[in-house]
Amino acid sequence: AQSVTQLDSQVPVFEEAPVELRCNYSSSVSVYLFWYVQYPNQGLQLLLKYLSGSTLVKGINGFEAEFNKSQTSFHLRKPSVHISDTAEYFCAVSPFSGNTGKLIFGQGTTLQVKP
Amino acid sequence: DTGVSQDPRHKITKRGQNVTFRCDPISEHNRLYWYRQTLGQGPEFLTYFQNEAQLEKSRLLSDRFSAERPKGSFSTLEIQRTEQGDSAMYLCASSTDGRSSGNTIYFGEGSWLTVV
């Protein structure tokens, strides 16, 4: 079975400051890793994904994430945030085995960007 | 590519009534997923289809819930005899089944259900 833990439920940060949203996962099999963003009353939008290869993955809106296999982590970072980045962020994993594509999500982290 | 569309976006119903949600996936996607999301939580997997075949159902999907995808295109999720605990956002998503896509799933805007 797989599980995802997002270590911070809320992250307040000032505009133009850097931010890191932390994600750890547990799995007995290899997984794909994802970050999604959800704006109020909307569905989820894919930010970035790790499939294989380089452990540093770049996504949309200036976000990037680094896969660390030994620490089973996939933290999301942005060097300078904007007010418009205020949203809910979800880390998710999808196991290789079975190729179902099913996603297991963390609880989410609310990013609050203050002016 | 028009994205995944869901209808209705919002539904308020009285306890005990039946409700049905519809999802139209991205046209070339043969996989379709249903998730449920309650306030302050991440989405939880309910079920998924490969073409018209329902291949997996979560234990969260009680007997009151039924999902169909009769022609392998759009899907419906019906909840019978709704309960207040069914209040949530129901998310539909779709993907291809190729490993090269990394099983990337694209979500719709969601259908909010409020049971009063």
Q: What would your notes on this structure say?
A:
The complex is a heterodimer of chains A (115) and B (116). Chain A is 0% helix and 54% strand. In chain A, the strands form 3 sheets. In chain A, strands 2, 5, 6, 10, 11 and 12 form a 6-stranded mixed sheet that branches. Chain A has a 4-stranded antiparallel sheet with strand order 3-9-8-7, with no helix packed on it. In chain A, strands 1-4 form a two-stranded antiparallel ribbon. Chain A is an all-beta fold. The mean pLDDT of chain A is 93. In chain A, a hairpin with an 8-residue loop joins β10 (87-95) and β11. With 116 residues, chain B is mainly beta. Chain B has strands spanning 5-7, 10-13, 19-24, 31-37, 44-50, 53-57, 65-68, 75-79, 88-95, 106-107, 111-115. In chain B, β7 (65-68) and β8 (75-79) form a beta hairpin. Chain B is globular, with a radius of gyration of 14 Å.
Secondary-structure map with pairings?
The complex is a heterodimer of chains A (115) and B (116).
Chain A lengths: L2 E4 L3 E5 L4 E3 L1 E4 L4 E8 L5 E7 L5 E3 L5 E5 L4 E6 L8 E9 L8 E2 L3 E6 L1
Chain B lengths: L4 E3 L2 E4 L5 E6 L6 E7 L6 E7 L2 E5 L7 E4 L6 E5 L8 E8 L10 E2 L3 E5 L1
Parallel strand pairs in B: 2-11
Antiparallel strand pairs in B: 1-3, 3-8, 4-5, 4-9, 5-6, 7-8, 9-10, 9-11
